[in-house]
Design a protein that fits this description.
By secondary structure, the chain is of the alpha+beta class. It contains seven helices and 26 strands. The chain has helices at residues 2-13, 89-100, 142-151, 212-223, 270-279, 367-377, 432-439; strands at residues 41-47, 59-64, 69-76, 79-86, 103-104, 115-122, 125-130, 137-140, 164-170, 183-188, 193-199, 203-209, 226-227, 239-244, 249-253, 265-268, 308-314, 324-325, 331-332, 334-340, 345-352, 357-364, 381-382, 396-402, 408-412, 424-427. An eight-stranded mixed sheet has the order 4-3-2-1-6-7-8-5, with helices on one face. An eight-stranded mixed sheet has the order 12-11-10-9-14-15-16-13, covered by helices on one side. The longest helix is centred in the first third of the chain and has 12 residues, at 2-13. The radius of gyration is 29 Å and the shape is globular.
């Protein structure tokens, strides 16, 4: 009868009043350890407050502490998701410490708030630890447990507001198609407009409209993209990137997660997206392609709101003078300049290879030097998408420009090839990097 009375009280008044702990007939003092290290598997559930689109499905995790495997399903990032994750040693240690910190409590809980529970099957029956409720032991300290559990669920990068994308698959070495093996696609998911210049079994270049099934398959693959925490690289796989022209966002395959110089968000789940793109790239005669760039950027590339620019320059390894000796004894073909466009303050580390000179310093450009750089930068123009393939000699200038909006990445090389598949391809009549190279020469 007492249990029925309590249930009626909760239905009528919420859980504004403290609910007493429930146990198997023994009294557990408040503040006692709630977790038993002999428990090896458990199910955790987070009930979501009303107002989220998938609130009808709580977030659930099943954890095996011996294998460190976590299976999750339910409502995450305001969408329904499921998957499996294996805890790293550091994640496992953090979770175990959080579980050991759980203590019994008589704290109050509020109606319509997020609530947590952990269920453990033991030899003596099911043990229930809960933040609010009537069937288990009231416990405090769930925040750290569920913070760790939520962190193992990879964040989706795709959202329904994205309607247009550019995708690139760059071959690391070798060529399997006439005219090069790199592939490029432009997709309008609203209209189904689809342009491609791809190396499938042969060179395929064309433009067509995706049918409803093809569009649905591509959307499904895109919805599977998840932010990755991988920081190491594999070898010899195609370099896969997706660019969202409306925002300048760049997603790169986490197979090359060590490439911090790509200035991209690394994601998992790229292969199904590119499988879908390749499967819809029907072979067509190149001269009949009828391709245009759609909303891909054209014309002047340098933004009027530019505030700061990071310039990276990689010399071609094919050049007779391509590298400089570093102070630690290594070699580099890479030069960098970091320039504040308002003050002219500049930091730089430059390889003057012909003079076997590596210079690391800082200073301030004169008004004339700053004006010369700006004049050269304004000659940068976007290279038309799907320009003819060309050789890859490894030389590239990259300008990462800070503006009022998101950073803009512009790539230029001597023959305008997309040597590294991040950002947009540009060309210029005056190379802004050459202005900085001259200005910072000792």
């Amino acid at each position: 009868m007492r249990r029925i009375a309590l249930l009626l009280a909760v239905l009528l008044f919420g859980c504004e009043e403290a609910l007493p702990m429930r146990d198997a007939g023994t009294s557990v003092p408040v503040g006692s350890a709630a977790w038993d290290d002999t428990w090896r598997t458990f199910t955790a559930k987070q009930s979501i407050p009303t107002g989220q689109t998938c609130a009808q499905r709580p977030s659930e995790w099943t954890v095996d502490l011996d294998s460190r495997e976590v299976r999750y399903s339910g409502c995450f990032f305001n969408r329904t998701m499921s998957g499996t994750h294996v805890l790293s040693p550091s994640q496992f240690q953090t979770l175990r410490a959080a579980l050991r910190a759980l203590v019994t409590s008589d704290a109050q809980c509020l109606a319509d708030s997020t609530s947590f529970e952990v269920r453990v099957e033991t030899s003596s029956g099911e043990q229930v630890l809960e933040e609010c409720g009537l069937v288990g032991t009231r416990v405090a300290g769930f925040a750290d447990v569920f913070r760790l559990l939520r962190s193992v669920v990879p964040e989706p990068v795709w959202n329904e507001s994205i309607t247009y994308l550019s995708a690139t698959s760059r071959v690391v070495f070798g060529s399997f198609c006439p005219g090069g093996s790199d592939s490029n696609w432009l997709v309008d998911l609203t209209t189904g407009d689809f342009s491609y210049d791809a190396c499938t079994s042969a060179r395929a270049r064309g433009r067509r409209t995706l049918n409803a099934t093809e569009r649905s398959d591509l959307r499904t693959a895109l919805e599977g993209l998840r932010r990755s925490t991988r920081t190491f690289c594999g070898a010899d796989k195609h370099e896969l990137t997706i660019t969202i022209p409306a925002t300048g966002a760049v997603w790169a395959d986490d197979f090359y997660g060590c490439r911090t110089d790509w200035n991209a968000t690394f994601v998992e789940g790229m292969d199904p997206v590119f499988d879908a793109l390749r499967s819809t790239s029907h072979e067509a005669p190149v001269e009949d392609a009828g391709i245009d760039a759609g909303p891909y950027p054209t014309g002047p590339a340098w933004p009027s709101s530019a505030q700061r620019v990071e310039v990276d320059y990689w010399r071609s390894f094919l050049s007779p003078f391509s590298t400089c000796a570093l102070p630690d004894g290594g070699l580099t073909n890479h030069s960098t300049w970091s320039l504040d466009l308002d003050s002219g303050v500049i930091d730089y580390a430059v390889c003057y290879a012909q003079e076997h000179l590596y210079v690391v310093d800082s200073g301030v450009l004169s008004p004339a030097q700053l004006a010369a750089f700006t004049a050269a930068a304004t000659t940068l123009e976007y290279v038309p998408w799907m320009s003819p393939p060309c050789s890859n000699d490894g030389e590239i200038d990259r300008f990462t420009v800070t503006t009022d909006a998101s950073p803009l990445v512009l790539n230029q090389s001597g023959d305008y090839c997309p040597v590294q598949p991040i950002g947009f391809r540009v060309q210029s009549t005056q190379n802004p990097r050459a202005v900085l190279e001259a200005a910072t020469h000792p």
